[in-house]
Amino acid sequence: MEEKRMKDYDIKIKKADEVTIYGTDNDTIVVPSQVVFESNRNQAEIDIDGVAKALIGIPPKADHIELFIENSVLNLQGISFNRMEIDGEGKLYIALDNADGSIDVNMIHGEAELIVPSDFVFTTRCEGKNNVIDCKIPTDPSAKNVIELNGKNSVLTIRTK
């Protein structure tokens, strides 16, 4: 019998200075108390608006995470995913700590800085119009983790801690 578990997460965050998404020890989902949370067996939709710091816990292995975030610090801790889509606005600072998976950063006229651990193995892909990935650390073209920049007139800087 196939195990039933939450697979997809659609998270919208507005007006938060700092967001941490972390892996829980089990299938528990943890969100701030004043959020809109809807779910079915396969997907959770989480809307957060107007909190200074948002702490969100989801099961440690996810298939797909879609995140809308603006002008914020995003910490990803103890979590793995097949793919995370970050639809960002303004300036983003994204830090990976014990996180694993491919990340798509989608921005228009935005700037993002991605901080990866020194042992994080990845490759990059730049799509869209007038986008630039500034990555001064070695990449591995055969890596399963792909960091992709999409959109228009945006810059993604990738560096280690």
**What percent of residues adopt helix (DSSP H or I)?**
under 10%
Strand content: over 45%
Structural class: mainly beta
Task: Report low-confidence residues grouped into runs of 5 or more.
Answer: none
Q: What sequence of helices (H) and strands (E) makes up the elements? A: EEEEEEEEEEE
Round the mean pLDDT to the nearest integer and report it.
Answer: 91
Tally the helices: 0
Please report the total strand number as a whole number. 11
Q: Using only CA atoms, what is the Rg? A: 15 Å
**Sheet with the most strands?**
11 strands, mixed
**Tally of structural domains:** 1
> How far apart are the termini?
43 Å
Shape: globular
How would you describe what is shown here?
- There is one protein chain.
- This protein has strands spanning 8-14, 18-23, 36-39, 43-49, 53-58, 61-108, 111-116, 123-126, 132-135, 146-152, 155-160.
- It has 161 residues and is mainly β.
- It has one domain (8-160).
- Strands 1, 2, 3, 4, 5, 6, 7, 8, 9, 10 and 11 form an 11-stranded mixed beta sheet that branches.
- Strand 3 (36-39) and strand 4 form a beta hairpin.
- The protein is globular and about 40 Å long.
- The N and C termini lie far apart (43 Å).
- The mean pLDDT is 91.
